[in-house]
Specification:
With 427 residues, this protein is α+β, with helices and mostly antiparallel strands. The chain has a single domain, classed as Cytochrome P450 (Cytochrome p450, Orthogonal Bundle), CATH 1.10.630. 48% of the residues lie in helices and 8% in strands. The chain has 18 helices and ten strands. The protein has a five-stranded mixed β-sheet with strand order 1-2-8-5-3. The protein has a three-stranded antiparallel β-sheet with strand order 4-10-9. Strands 6-7 form a two-stranded antiparallel sheet. A hairpin with a 4-residue loop joins strand 1 and strand 2. Helix 9 packs antiparallel against helix 13 and helix 10 crosses helix 11. The chain is globular and about 55 Å long. The N and C termini lie far apart (72 Å).
């Protein structure tokens, strides 16, 4: 029997799952606030997962690779049709799990190599270039009265940051974003078979681009991520195979920008809806690093992650058999009343916002977290300086990413109210 059929009659709160809308993010936080006091774990029939809502239950699952496997983390929610798999195979698409959906000891071996480049020290070398990019986007906005921050800054900027890591200078960031968005939808969304089949060509093109980038670094190494991996591999498949290396480069182009685009959109949407908090940052920029953490807590860009039980387990006082699938609600855990005082309140002066689990927890904690924090801090520093009176345009219809795990606004229109030149220079 599956975990759902075995446990469903035993759980008095199983009916909560009938109201769970795993792909809809409008009202998501209100839903979890209403069920969290009584339903630490509940069954969601639409996706056949058990949803875990409290940090004290989520973190042990993320930390325990003996009892829980990450191999389900990037399994398509809507299975890919065989015709799509056949096409990708013909196109030599050789995607394999090397990080977020990989268990030890393989995960440990690969992560240790990737972390030699993806770390806070390495990321700090790019700060000046990242700041120049943001200032360039601000200059492009120019003297506009209004702007869509998502379209005009947040959509491209994180992809440009990934290009810096990859040493790429001659590719359209919007194409990479389109490929990344498509990959997210085919894994974490609910597209039709027809839509999946149509996506296959772009996914294969994305893979070809990544492979060609690696091939170029084999011939002419540089100071970039792929070159560093090649050097660390040193021709030894026991350290890292070439296909694993290709997948690390392929994965960076997805994970390295999608979540940060959404995190920036969520953070600025929240600040614009709380103008008193925006004013605090304008008046005291030293609050910005804390505001980044509070934004990640209050409005996560990754709202849920997945695990599958490798053996019989106990979660929130209930027993589940091996094979049970769990959806860990990071969004709910980030507003857990047991961890945060007044968790539904957005407060850039909060004392403990970094206790959030927006980047996961345990051995799979996001390697790119320091880069995301750096990008968000730079965005806040530069935009509060350039547009201290920026404000939300009311009555706009904001739609949200319709996927199981990723949340971000499709647009965010604001009135810029730009500083005068004298104000920008503190005169």
């Amino acid at each position: 029997m599956t975990g759902s059929s075995t446990q469903k009659p035993q759980c008095p709160m199983h009916g909560v799952g009938d109201n769970h809308q795993p792909f809809a993010h409008e009202g998501m936080y209100d839903f979890f606030a209403s069920v969290r006091p009584e339903a630490r774990v509940f069954y969601s029939p639409e996706i056949d997962y058990w949803v875990v809502t409290h940090q004290s239950d989520i973190k042990p699952i993320l930390q325990d690779s003996e009892k829980y496997s990450a191999t389900i983390a990037t399994k398509p929610i809507c299975p890919w049709p065989q015709s799509m798999r056949d096409y990708l195979d013909e196109r030599n698409f050789r995607n394999e799990s090397v990080q977020v959906a990989c268990d030890p000891p393989r995960h440990t071996r690969i992560r240790q190599i990737a972390a030699r480049f993806l770390n806070i020290r390495q990321f700090s070398f790019y700060e000046d270039q990242l700041r120049d990019l943001v200032r360039g986007y601000i200059d492009q906005i120019g003297e506009k009265e209004e702007a869509d921050l998502v379209d005009e800054i947040f959509y491209e900027f994180p992809a440009q940051a990934v290009f810096l890591l990859l040493g790429v200078t001659d590719f359209d960031p919007r194409k990479i974003k389109e490929w990344g968005d498509l990959r997210i939808t085919t894994i974490f969304g609910h597209p039709s078979n027809e839509e999946l089949q149509a996506a296959a060509e772009d996914i294969a093109d994305f893979w070809d681009f990544s492979s060609a980038l690696v091939d170029a670094r084999v011939q002419e190494p540089g100071d970039d991520y792929a070159s560093a991996l090649l050097k660390l591999r040193d021709g030894n498949d026991e350290k890292l195979t070439m296909n694993e290396l290709r997948n690390l480069v392929f994965g960076l182009q997805l994970a390295g920008h999608e979540t940060t685009t959404n995190a920036a959109g969520n953070l600025f949407d929240t600040l614009m809806q709380h103008p008193d908090q925006w004013r605090k940052l304008v008046e005291d920029p030293s609050l910005i690093p804390n505001a980044v953490e509070e934004g990640l807590r209050y409005a996560s860009s990754v709202v849920a992650w997945r695990r599958i039980a490798k053996q019989d387990v106990e979660v929130a006082g209930k027993s589940f058999p091996a094979g049970t699938k769990f959806l860990l609600s990071l969004a709910s855990g980030n507003r857990d009343e047991e961890v945060f005082e007044e968790p539904e309140t957005f407060d850039v002066t909060r004392e403990n916002p970094r206790r959030h689990i927006a980047f996961g927890n345990g051995l799979h904690t996001c390697l790119g977290a320091p880069l995301a924090r750096l990008e968000l801090r730079i965005l806040l520093e530069e935009l509060t300086r350039a547009f201290p009176r920026m404000e939300f345009i009311p009555d706009q219809d904001i739609s949200w990413t319709e996927t199981l795990s990723f949340r971000g606004p499709s647009a965010l229109r604001v009135r810029l109210n730009r500083n005068t030149p004298s104000e920008e220079h503190g005169l």
